[in-house]
Amino acid sequence: MSEDQEQPVSTGPKNAVVILLDSLNRHMLGAYGGEEFRTPNLDRIGARSTKFMNHYVGSLPCMPARHDILCGALDFLWRPWGSIELWEDAITYELSKAGVTSQLISDHPHLFETGGENYHVDFSAWDYQRGHEGDLWKTKPDPSWAGAPNFGREHMPYDDSRGYFRGEADFPGPRTMQAAASWLEDNADQHDRFFLFVDEFDPHEPFDTPEPYASMYDPDWEGAHMIWPPYMKGALEKGVLTERQAQQIRACYGAKLTMIDHWLGKVLDVMDAKGLWDDTVFILCTDHGHYLGEKDLWGKPGVPIYQTLGHIPLMIAAPDVQPGTCDALTTSVDLFATLADLFGIEDKIRQRTHGHSLLPLLEGTTGSVRDWLLAGVWGREVHLIDGTHKYARGAGGINRPISMFSNRWSTMPTHFLRREDELPLPDDRAALDRMPGSNVPVIRQPWGENDRLPYWAPPKLGPNLLFDLKSDPGEETDLSDTPLSGEYADKLHAVLKEVEAPDDQFVRLGYG
């Protein structure tokens, strides 16, 4: 082993397993008190874990959330969606230099599409299980799949793949979990230290499952199951959904949740059989939740981040740490910092990061690691959460100006929009700038009032919001017209200064 590959000395756990389940609703898990759907294996993890009770999203949606976890840096203030940039590394880069074997197992299509490039390349190995949602896998559909209502979506790549799933074990989620279990069985004792990252797209839509799951929570439903939820506000109010259809969509989510929970159990069985709990930190997390009718919201529409979407589960089982709960405020970038701390590479990271290791919380040497966190989607409201309140600040007037910072100019991969309809290319207003903590020049492209931008950055945003999360967890009472709102406006201004947010964010948000 070369000098720069010397393995860090460790007196704690040797390994880490991170399982990310996409669109996992905290309030539906038995481990967090949910009773609507069956989640025995998620509850099994909860029984041996520290359950984090105030864990929140950072950057949204899918790829920005993974950037938080794998690169440790918030990016929603600087760009909407993209790959690893020139000035930064995924955690796997330094792990490789430190002699840690890393494996990615995933059925997440966005990791392998335009806008998701380079997250997989520094893993020691990666395994992509094909066929989920927008995966361009098959050109000749199997005619046995009749399709399902899709609420405005055009033909989805999943419609070409679905007929090739003959039984439960053929679905992408089960295949991903079986591959993870098999990797642990065959590899866990073959490496000095390892990091396994399972990026599982379930229970994200399509909420498509075979029997017995498909009818498990709605046995009286007749016709094609409603596996594609609409993405909108007010679907019931506007008559897009009936109450009966809404019940069916929610039941289909539950079916997908229970199915992936079952296959997760196979990973836990190998952890048990090989005694891996004794030297491995096991992290169960998600990128965000999913609206299934709460406030008559569906999917991930363009609204502020309410608790259903933003207050997410995090369970960590660590050797010699007794199970329990942790009330400390945490967010997704903290997972990167935790892994860097665990593997002893925290001083090797070259990009500026925004996270704090959670190991001191697990060890009981501190009661908190942060006083606030930021959350948001590029071009929409910026949210400040401090453990007691959530302040959502939108544009002070027109939702401009706003810039995108990137040296890897890419677009959000969607199959219902043409590339030219998504993110405009840089124009003659583009200039070289710097990211906080970096001297690498980066293209900064500003956009103004009359510029067309992606659908997630609308011309105007709604009013500011302020909620007391302790006394009003359902976010029913907006406090933005009280004096407290001014205090939070000032606090957010100071936090944006601290993270060196782009100057046009201050203008866009009405700070002048």
What is the strand content? 15-25%
Rg computed from alpha carbons, rounded to a whole number of angstroms: 22 Å
The CATH superfamily of the largest domain appears as Alkaline Phosphatase, subunit A
Order of helices and strands: EHEEHHEEHHEEHEEEHEEHHEEEEEEEHH
CATH class of the largest domain: Alpha Beta
Uncertain residue ranges? none
Structural commentary:
By secondary structure, the chain is α/β, with parallel strands linked by helices. The chain folds into 2 domains: 12-363, Alkaline Phosphatase, subunit A, CATH 3.40.720; 379-508, no CATH class. 23% of the residues lie in helices and 18% in strands. The chain has 11 helices and 19 strands. It has an 8-stranded mixed β-sheet with strand order 5-4-6-1-8-11-2-12, with helices on both faces. The chain has a 5-stranded mixed β-sheet with strand order 3-13-14-15-19. β9 and β10 form a beta hairpin. α2 (62-71) runs parallel beside α8 (333-342). The longest helix is centred in the middle third of the chain and has 31 residues, at 243-273. The radius of gyration is 22 Å and the shape is globular. The termini are far apart.
